[in-house]
Specification:
mainly alpha, 2 helices
Length: 94
């Protein structure tokens, strides 16, 4: 969860640096309420997109490093058990 918000914050800082660097010293930019509303809507859209990407990445990493190894281990165990049970001479008393 921290990574999800940290990435969005870092992206916001990187995107905002060029805008801040262009401002003359001592002057505050004047924005209309519509411009502020549009900027907030775009920021919310970017955050939603990054959250979706983060969720997909978590699923992908979980599948790759957690689910797949467990599944492969279980499959291998079942395969060994099926080979052991398929050998009719294993239970032979002689």
């Amino acid at each position: 969860m921290f990574v999800r918000y940290a990435f969005a914050t870092a992206l916001l800082v990187v995107l905002a640096l060029p805008l801040v660097a262009e401002l003359p010293v001592g002057e505050a930019p004047q924005y209309t309420p519509q411009e502020i509303q549009q900027a907030l809507a775009e920021l919310n859209l970017a955050i939603q997109y990054l959250n979706e990407v983060g969720q997909r990445t978590e699923v992908m990493i979980g599948d790759r490093f957690i689910v797949t190894p467990i599944q492969e281990s279980l499959d291998a165990s079942f395969e060994v058990m099926s080979r052991v049970n398929a050998d009719p001479l294993q239970d032979d008393p002689i």
